[in-house]
Amino acid sequence: MASTPSHRLRLTPANSPFLPIPARSPHRGRAPQLSDSRLSLKRVIGTTCISPTGFDAVPSSFAYIAGGAVVVVDVDGDEYGQRFFRARPTAIPVYGTPALPYSTSTPSTPKANDSRNRISLRESAFGSNDWAESPTSKTWTSRERIKAATCLALSKEGRFLAVGETGYAPRVLIYSLEDRSSDTPLVSISEHAYGVKAVAWSPDSKFLASLGSSNDGFLYVWKIDPRTGAAKLFQQNRCTTYIKGMIWVGNNLITLGVRHVKVWRIDEAQATSPVKQKFIGDANPAAQPQKTLPGRNVLLGNMIEATFSCAAAIDDTKAIICSETGDVCLLDDFGKQMKLIHILESGFVTTCVAMRNGLVYIGGKSGNFATLDLESLLKGSSTCIRTNIESSTGIGVLAMGFLKDKIVTVDAKRSIDIWNQDHIPGTSRVQSTSIPIPGGGGAVMGVGGLAQSNVTGARFYTWSQSGQVILWSTDGTIKSTFQIPLDEAYFEEEPNLINQMVTIRATVDGKFFIAGDKLGFVKVFDFTANECVASMKAHASECQFIAVYEDKSSLLVASCGRDRTAQLFHRLSNGEFEHFQTLEFAARVSQVLIPSMDKIITCSLDRAVQIHDLVRKEGDSDVMAAIPSRTLSLKGSPTSMAVGPDGKSLFVSQVERSIYTFDLETGKLTSSFKCFDESGADPVILDSLTTCPATEREPAFLLGLSNTDKSIRMYDTQTGQFLAREWGHTEAIHGVAMIEEDDANRKVVSVGSDGTIMIWEIDLQDRGWGSISRDSSPAKDPSTPVNLPTLRRVLSKSELAEFQRPSSAAGGRRSPPRTLSKRRSLFFGNFASTPVKTPVAVQQSTPASVIAEDTPSRRPSGNPSGSPPISPKGRVNRRPSVPALNSAKTRSNGSLRSFGSLNMSTEQTCRTLRAYRKKLASSDPISQEILAELDQELRLTAVALGDRATRSKAMSDTMLSGLLDQYSERLVSLLDEKLRLGKYRESSDQETDSTDKRPGSSGTGSSNTST
């Protein structure tokens, strides 16, 4: 039966004294929400505040926005503590707001999938639904989860916090500051449709004003219950101008922006309040409409083209308003006419203004700062400037506020400083002590974890596009910073191309940092020496990922790029870094891993995962090579991969929003699961996969990030069960990292383009978890590093034949650690199962075996089975007969060129020698030892060929002699028979002649005579 909308059919009359029963949702229900999340936010580094609307301060504390959360800082002397306030999209407030007959949406608390049946009441005459469904009754789409905090305001007595959001179904949230931290707001208001630009509390905290963006175009004034914080609409009006700030001046509300200064007058006595509802769920058709909020524009005079950026109230009738160009104006509400008086020009771009103890503080975008005497300013004197400081650092001040005995500033590097009250921003830090709350300085492009004991003393590191690396501790302090140099990009085809840092990986001890940039350079930075020790042009385009593996004896580095290659480097015994091989692929390589000293794993966009074995040359441990071992086919293009905690499994995330688990020993697919949320719906694409081993309190889990809904997710590695999900970043998340604490606690660090670094604490205990070759860039100027040729070293088959696989894979035996199935390669023959010494002789040869190899047999030459070959001695015990030899040659004539045969090995050797002769024309030096070894191999090969020719000739002579013997014996027998027959005929003739001479012969004579 189809469900009927609740506004068409009422199951209970409106005047019923009983509580209404909510209708059953036609959509799939959500799973019960957990009271406590497995991921809890413990610290936020950085801020997204770019204007005074994102910062506020009262004598006891100050607050600022950071992504999707608000950070409230309580300062006590030289110590400070952070509290975090953020509400999930499905959070249910403590108090609800009554439905409004002329609101933008209904009901006031948004629900998932409202966009499918949402009707704006500004254009509709119908009231709100009486039977509103719970927010937990429907699933939430990805876009509905992404919400950013854009503005905030603290009540003057420090009891309430108001936060405005942007995104789909934005809200105005009111929190109680009496809580330590809170995820549940007191009130959630969703009357703005396109985002909230500013919020402001009245001086007596009785009213809260919320201003929507220019697309929203509405200004609401809410009346707040001082005891509980509950809100109801008081007045409203449209305001479609681009607004940059809003303040209260007495009972008047001032909005300012682009060529705009307007005064809104709030008169509590004249406002019309709606009729109180008798029962819960009653509609109020007789309710009178809200009275419009009256407003009046201020005459700007010669400031008509100005853009006003900030303002500060002096008293109940006066305020200071500043423009972006540095104009300082006085707004006077004396009488019924508001006047805007231009006082002076500061000479720099003004971003913020504040007042304290008779002084006006003005901050600039370029680091300039000025103080004005308030008494002289009120008199209209243009000589009221006391100090005008130009900062040497050039770091601008975006917001400013005052505590009881401190001054707080937010600069353009996303850092916050708490100064003494006598400090003047812009002066040197040596002259005045401060409590810094550092920030990342801009968009954070990645994060990496460090071991507990390392040379840096930090726990994790982050980097920016400019190549600046910052080392952090878990309490948010900076341990050290350094700069990895970037080469300048110069291409005539792309003159605006700017080189940027893309990825950085550090060794376990933090001594070396390996970086890859947008131009394809791979650089090795020594932290202890504070210098770049190696720089290599590894890729023709952007370097996408770098993997590092380190043990006590060696250090391996692998990089992959958009040029469809993976480059392999290692550290020699003398400390230098050497490039030893280039791996080429058919598509772009998205990631490379080095799980152990003998294995390299790559994944590419052609839906394949390639596994290579790392082998070393006998007698020289510094000579290495990667030999193809196995290829795993995928259903979709891979985005990320990670090796399991046991080192035997591989997790691969794909664009089809699922994760596949492969067994590295057998290459088989063991399991797969979709990346669903707790409700079993809305799968996402996971990136930056990280596996964490199980502990006594926590299971082994898989950590990843999703830019589909800007969330951090955790899944059980064994069952694929969903464990946790949290939001905080409002822009692209660039990485997550796991940190092990001294007390066995684990924390997660996430970074994003919004410039924030969030540290999360994991708590999974007491939970029900499951059972435990391309050309390089065109060269323009060879002298510049950008135009250096890209490194290429693709090993040929003959060069790979000089390396021997590990003993565990030789001879067809399988050891417990590595049980790789035996394979036969089209190019290498029995390379995987037989130890290879030289590229010429695949197996140890004897004269008998040489004859047997050329002698056809009944066993197919291309048999891929793993059974041992038949001994050649059994096939040369006797010489084959001539008919059998001819028939064998006829049957095997079509299989002479099968793989692994002597003919194919001979052809391959010829091609290798031709290629070697071409390389001899180059000017590269050749070692004498290698020349001696080559001379010896060539002599041995020549001797073996001579013996083969001699044996082949002897075999031909034997065959011919056998044939001659057979035919000679037959000829002799024929001659004997011929002679015997001849003798028989002669005797018969003699007998006939003697018979004619007897008496009976007269008749004959008479007859003759007569004849």
Mean pLDDT across every amino acid position: 77
Number of strands: 56
Overall body shape: elongated
- The tally of helices reads 9
- Cα Rg: 44 Å
Share in β-strands: 35-45%
Main beta sheet, described? 4 strands, antiparallel
Secondary-structure content class = mainly beta
Q: Which consecutive residue ranges, at least 5 long each, have pLDDT under 50?
A: 1-35, 102-139, 275-286, 767-780, 808-820, 824-867, 870-899, 997-1011
General description of the model:
The protein is mainly β. Helix content is 13%, strand content 35%. Strands 1-56-55-54 form a four-stranded antiparallel sheet, with no helix packed on it. It is elongated.
Short recap of the structure:
This protein has 1011 residues and is mainly beta. The termini are far apart.
Question: Could you give the topology of this structure?
Answer:
Elements: E1 39-45, E2 55-57, E3 61-66, E4 69-76, E5 79-85, H1 114-117, H2 142-145, E6 147-154, E7 160-167, E8 172-176, E9 187-189, E10 196-201, E11 207-212, E12 218-224, E13 231-238, E14 243-249, E15 252-257, E16 260-265, E17 295-297, E18 308-313, E19 318-323, E20 327-332, E21 339-345, E22 350-356, E23 359-364, E24 368-373, H3 374-378, E25 385-390, E26 397-402, E27 406-411, E28 416-420, E29 434-437, E30 446-449, E31 460-463, E32 468-472, E33 478-483, E34 501-506, E35 512-517, E36 521-526, E37 531-537, E38 543-550, E39 555-561, E40 565-571, E41 577-584, E42 589-596, E43 599-604, E44 608-617, E45 620-633, E46 638-643, E47 649-654, E48 658-663, E49 669-674, E50 687-692, E51 701-706, E52 711-716, E53 722-727, E54 733-740, E55 746-752, E56 757-762, H4 797-800, H5 847-854, H6 882-891, H7 902-919, H8 928-996, H9 1002-1010
Antiparallel strand pairs: 1-56, 2-3, 3-4, 4-5, 6-7, 7-8, 8-9, 10-11, 11-12, 12-13, 14-15, 15-16, 16-17, 18-19, 19-20, 20-21, 22-23, 23-24, 24-25, 26-27, 27-28, 28-29, 30-31, 31-32, 32-33, 34-35, 35-36, 36-37, 38-39, 39-40, 40-41, 42-43, 43-44, 44-45, 46-47, 47-48, 48-49, 50-51, 51-52, 52-53, ...
